TrEMBL record:
Family designation: Belongs to the integrin beta chain family.
Annotated source species: Patiria miniata (Bat star)
PSI domain mapped to chain residues: 43-89
Name of the protein in its database record: Integrin beta
Its membrane topology: Single-pass type I membrane protein
Domain Integrin beta subunit tail: 659-742
Disulfide bond entries: 50-60, 53-88, 63-77, 213-216, 264-305, 406-418, 465-469, 480-492, 489-537, 494-503, 543-548, 545-580, 550-565, 567-572, 588-599, 590-627, 601-610, 612-619, 633-638, 635-680, 640-649, 659-668, 665-739
Amino acid sequence: MDGGYRYRHLIWATMMLSLLSTMCNAQVTEPPPIDPQDLQDNICSAARTCGECIALDPMCGWCGDQGYAEETNFRRCDLQANLMNKTCQDITFPESSVTVVQNDPLSDAGEGPSTEAVQVAPQKITLKLRPKETADLTVSVRQARDYPVDLYYVMDLSRSMQDDLDNLKELATTLAYEIGNITRNFRLGFGSFVEKTVAPYVDTAIGSLMEPCPGCEAPYNFRNHLPLDINTDLFSQRVNETSVSGNLDLPEAGLDALMQVTVCKDQIGWLPRARHIVVYTSDGSFHFAGDGKLGGVVQPNDGKCHLNPDTGYNTKANEYDYPSIGHLNVRMREQNVIPIFAVTAKQMSLYQTLARFIEGSTVGTLAQDSSNVVQLIKDNYEKITSRVEIVDNSPENLAVSYTSRCLDEAPRPNSKVCTGLRLGETVSFDVSVEATSCPDNNIQKFSIGPIGFDESILITVEVACECECEASAVPNSEYCTNGNGTLSCGQCACDPGRYGKQCECSSTDDAGTSFRDKYENVASCRANTNSTSSIVCSGRGECICGECACFERQNRKEIISGRYCECDNFSCERYDSELCGGPDRGECVCDEKKRRSACKCRPGYVGNACGCATSTAACIASNGLICNGRGRCNCNKCTCESPFQGETCEVCKTCIGKCSSYRPCVECQVYGVDISPADCNKCNVAVVIERDLPTINGSSLCVFPVPEGHSNCSQTYSFVYETLSNGTILVHLVEPGECGGDSGSGGNDGDGPVVEKDASGSEIFIFVISTVVAIVLIGLVLLALLRAATFLHDKREFARFQKEQKSAVWDQAQNPIYKPSTSTYVNPLYGK
């Protein structure tokens, strides 16, 4: 095997390097970058009037200069910065603002300028917003000490609550005492509920309606026994005067009672500046909306007060259905009423579910006989006062979000609750208000406040959806072509029958078709005149009098053009990050036939982005051939055949010397094969036939087989080469001798050049097989040596073990911890 084959194992690594080199040299055509300024310009372009403009986006402003759009073709609705750069003088750009109207400091009763406590600050705020714009404000909340408490006790007085009523009678004084320890300013009230007095809820027999059970009071829906009062003895008295009643079904009319307690402010006696708490006790479930239909009560609950001021009974209980849970929650939130549900263990799961839908409510387990009711009220009151949750009644077009700042904790986004508070501690909430759209009424009001507080922040929001200049419009303005329109905010609103920027266009075309305004006659401004879905002026211009007036861009060098504004000079394809490859290669023009922008290439360049040069000058190899005859010239760059590479396919890292490069030219001149005569004439190679090869420094001895058809046997020819001063490659060639003889001087005496031959497929196969066999043999030898070393080591260790075993000396010994099964004792006095 020849010496050249020692390098063949590098072939795969060389091919990978060649592939990476090709990838690195390749040029990638990138899509044209999007100009951020162009995107911003188009945010405001859809607005036609000043009102539409300021409502479209907070970044949009309106130019009210007369002639601004008519003379310059600029858009009146644009970014504020763009309007200023375009020297607009009259810019309408409403600024948002937050104005605090009233901000009394937080204080306990009697500490501040007012005799009453202030628990929420500020109290009044005015916001001016544009649609899609956000305003930020901060709400502070502090629960005042000794704040008045109105506690109303409403009790289920069905027959099963007899023992609970008896215990309440005994604990009434204790309850008043414990409430007094919480706050010195409190009032107590008492009411009870049973059921609607219609079948099937109660027995409607005359006797049963008078006395449903022995010693029971006649059934009723709800009764206000005692309005809120500071006289605690009167509370005990009314509780002691109360008796239980009876009904047939298990659920009770508890929601009816809660609705009346909540909405009957005057009859119950709720103070406007107090904490309103209702204690609800029951051992049963409750009816809700829809249950009344079973008794023929189909009219939905109206959420109004129906208490008789003299007797305290609900007079409309049999006319209105039970309230829904959502309806009750709304009324309780409006009146700042917080319920405490004190129910038996069997009903805990039901009322815990109910409490999730009643804002601010809590649930406690009531003993079977209500003996723990006082402690339960005290514990749940502390839960209520240790928690602050913010709510609002904002309209649909306002989006309100919160971030809570609870004592020393970090801000919590999307949270409106603080817990673990004590009286006198202050927490705050960051509030963001966004106007999502324009309302019917530009001025709206809503409130933000904590659940259970009668204090809140009144927020007035003015949404800017109209421009002030629209209110001062000039009808029949001469600016609008002889008074054919109204001048509003710098532009003309044309009268019927006229349209155009200055109402200069007639409302009928040549065919007699009438148009209501300048935007209706747009058929001739659509690229596809048969489709109404085609965008007018390609979305980049305005149709005026049936013709497209293309918008101007911020960059004056960038021009939108074409009959339908479908072209421009800045969106063509790019080559090497340059538009159309740069000014030397081409320019971006309008292709009217295709109705799009396209590159117009200069002579010598072709392609969508003018990225392909038509010249082949860079592809000529040193031997005069295009790509050395080993590749194709594309766009003045060679695409080489494997394994050749380089700019002109003259580099072959798996080849030695330049034998393969010169072989095509040599064979075409000597044997007339390999390449065409035309390409052969381009060869920069001259061949000289020699008897013996000269020795030339730097040249390899090139040996190749004679082409087929030029020899009757397997013969080779050889040559060496040198470069003359004029750049011509001079080849010295020795032709083969007769068949069976030598091929001239084809040997190498050791001092001559290295011999190169092309390797046949069989020789490569033999090389690969021999390499694999050598690797396997080496592995087997190493495995045998490892096995022999292991065997010798084990043999030595076993011999040492046998030697130690033979030299061991064994003694008989007894286990020191062994105890025999029998023991012998000798009596020292025996025989004496």
